[in-house]
Amino acid sequence: MDEDVAMMAVDGQETPTSTSNSRSVAPPASPQDLSSVWTAENSTQQRIIQFITRWPPSRTPFAYGPWIYASRGGMSEGIAGQNIPGLKAAFQALLGAGRVTVDTVDQISKTNNVVTGKWMGVVKVSTCKEGEKHVICIYVNDYTNKPEVDALRKGLRSLGVKWRIGFKTDAYTHLNIYKDNPWNLRPSRFHE
């Protein structure tokens, strides 16, 4: 999304429009409107308020798209170098050899530069699905950088996140490693 294109004024002159369902905000022009890139230069309080006012998770239906997404500038550089087809091919080889373990998946993740991960507790939040809780994801550049992962968890705790939160590697997402998988791998890591 281009900066500030679909954002409303903060000063109260404009109000969010809603669809016939008064709980829902008006639909985006495209699913990309649910995302925004934040940098040191454009991360102002006004812009943050505009974004969260336009896309409140509890009033943004899943039909508009699965995620409301804000990424920090620079994250895309690491993502651009990811070799997801290579990761998937290496995973198929592990499957064929019967060698799917946390360590072997970590190894192929590093080899294919798919080392981003997220605290599930950039930020993305799930849109509203009736009867379901929201998921909020906060990304790190390299899940193998344990000090970065721990520092982010500490920051979340200092903001008041007291409940148990899981950390999921993007490699697991790309490889469809979810709960109750046939390899008995926990889909999230670094639990306290």
UniProtKB/TrEMBL annotation:
<dbReference type="InterPro" id="IPR023398">
    <property type="entry name" value="TIF_eIF4e-like"/>
</dbReference>
<comment type="similarity">
    <text>Belongs to the UPF0696 family.</text>
</comment>
<feature type="compositionally biased region" description="Polar residues">
    <location>
        <begin position="14"/>
        <end position="24"/>
    </location>
</feature>
<feature type="region of interest" description="Disordered">
    <location>
        <begin position="1"/>
        <end position="35"/>
    </location>
</feature>
<protein>
    <submittedName>
        <fullName>Uncharacterized protein</fullName>
    </submittedName>
</protein>
<dbReference type="InterPro" id="IPR015034">
    <property type="entry name" value="Bles03"/>
</dbReference>
